[in-house]
Amino acid sequence: MHIDILTLFPEMFSGVFHSSILNKAIERDKFSYDLINFRDFTENKHMKVDDYPYGGGAGMVLTPQPVFDAVSAVKKKRQANPRVILMCPQGETFTQQKAEQLANEDHLIFICGHYEGYDERIREHLVTDEISIGDYVLTGGELGAMVVVDSVVRLLPEVLGNKESAPEDSFSTGLLEHPHYTRPADFRGMKVPDILMSGDHAKIRGWRKEESLKRTYRRRRDLLNNYSLSKEEQEILERIKESE
Known about the structure:
Blueprint (H helix, E strand, L loop, with lengths): L1 E5 L7 H4 L2 H8 L4 E5 L13 E2 L9 E2 L1 H15 L4 E11 L2 H7 L4 E6 L4 E2 L1 H6 L3 E4 L9 H12 L32 E2 L2 E2 L9 H19 L11 H13 L1
Parallel strand pairs: 1-2, 1-6, 4-7, 5-6, 5-8
Antiparallel strand pairs: 3-4, 9-10
């Protein structure tokens, strides 16, 4: 996968892309990226990429020319038909399912805006996806793009050390993940559940399933609305409800 990020502040990405899993993925050639300052594409003699909105109003709006030309240059260089993603608070809320969808692509372009917003023609004629990471407003799209890239790249083959890690994550199965424990078995009187040390893998799987359902029911009940419960899971959930 190759990722291009159009931003006015490329320096914001250096720490994130050269740390932890993302850095390892780059070193293993699992993905590559380029940071493009779309100010370099402006035809404005003062290097401006924003202007006052027609009709009046507060703030400045990103002009279409630099963004269109930057995307065009990236596409020409890669000779590909990428997904062009606009980071925007009006976009669809980012989910694990969206991350899994994007992880199947070979080329992604992210557009990170600043100021009051984008010229609408960018939204209407250039992008394929609009993504928001939540119902709040940031000073720019860079932080949102970092979140999406991290979520997508970790799903690429062989990026995570354990191939079972990503499929078992919270939201990947449709439920929240079960609790985890590690050594010591007894930490200051707080003990690991006996079943996890029993060696009975069937009972451990059952315990984890029940704990996953219990945690989802108690913390994110809304997720169950779109989750297809098996007969076994329905019985477990009924027991959980009865115990409340």
